[in-house]
Specification:
Dihydrofolate Reductase, subunit A; two-stranded antiparallel sheet; 13 strands; binds NADP nicotinamide-adenine-dinucleotide phosphate
């Protein structure tokens, strides 16, 4: 199936969960399931079709969430440039507060910028207006509970959430059942051993793995698989 109206497609299609939030995870991957090369290079795996789709997701979202690994590897702007629309607020999950002060998505003052850190990691050199949020809801010792992150996002008044990556951040949301949709955009290239995208605990028998409801869409030469978890 083709998406004829990328800009309005998301708002008519994506439905909120019981808490009123709609949380979409996205990854752009190669045919062999890599989201970056072994050196962390990922700009850009997807072709124009996949990139326009990503920008339309950003335009749909109130807030975009990334992990500090992506901020350091890619220094993304997280703005909407390839479709009409305004850029979403930004949340960086950064427990140890190691985001560089010059990071593009923190420097740009046009939207709200928040960094989630552990309570004892105060930073004073981030650009003016960046909100450091002390987050203490930990699972397995050191990790933030993605479900608690989802609840905190709701408490900020945001309803449409894009979890843009990378792999570790998406894995935390997936494994805790905090995503409503996954948009996996596959492009026709093979990267060899690099940075695997979807990560999970693994199962021993096929019957242990649920089969998700999924639909596929052509994005030019890229293929979008949309999994719905609701
Ligand atoms: N192709 C794509 O669509 C795409 C999209 C985004 C990124 N990427 C690529 O993906 C790579 C980065 O992925 P990544 O998996 O290494 O990094 P990431 O998910 O961006 O960031 C991981 C880091 O964020 C923090 N974090 C995330 N979730 C957390 C949680 N629930 N609790 C506590 N801390 C959490 C941790 O920081 P600490 O280590 O400080 O604890 C963790 O190590 C880069 O190469 C980038 O280019 C590709």
């Amino acid at each position: 199936m083709k998406i004829s109206e990328p800009k309005t497609w998301h708002s008519t299609r994506l439905k909120p969960g019981a808490d009123g939030l709609t949380v979409v995870g996205q990854l752009g991957q190669s045919l062999d399931g890599q989201i970056a090369t072994a050196t962390g290079h990922s700009k850009y795996i997807n072709g124009d079709g996949g990139l326009v789709h990503l920008h339309a997701l950003r335009a749909w979202a109130d807030v975009v969430v990334i992990g500090v690994g992506t901020l350091i590897a890619d220094d993304p702007k997280l703005t909407v440039r390839m479709v009409p629309g305004s850029s979403p607020a930004r949340v960086v999950i950064d427990p140890s507060a190691r985001s560089p002060a010059a990071a593009a998505c923190l420097v740009d003052e046009s939207v709200r910028r928040l960094v989630l850190t552990k309570p004892d990691r105060a930073r004073s050199d981030w650009p003016a207006g960046v909100e450091q949020v002390a987050f203490s809801s930990l699972v397995a010792g050191q990790k933030f509970d993605a479900n608690q992150v989802r609840q905190w996002i709701a408490s900020q008044g945001w309803q449409r959430v894009l979890v843009e990556g990378g792999a570790a951040t998406l894995a935390a949301f997936l494994s805790s059942g905090s995503l409503d949709y996954l948009h996996l955009i596959t492009s026709p290239l093979i990267l060899g051993p690099g940075t695997p995208g979807i990560r999970s605990q693994g199962v021993s028998r096929l019957s242990d793995s649920p089969r998700f409801t999924a639909e596929t869409f052509e994005l030019g030469k890229d293929l979008l698989v949309e999994c719905a978890f609701q």
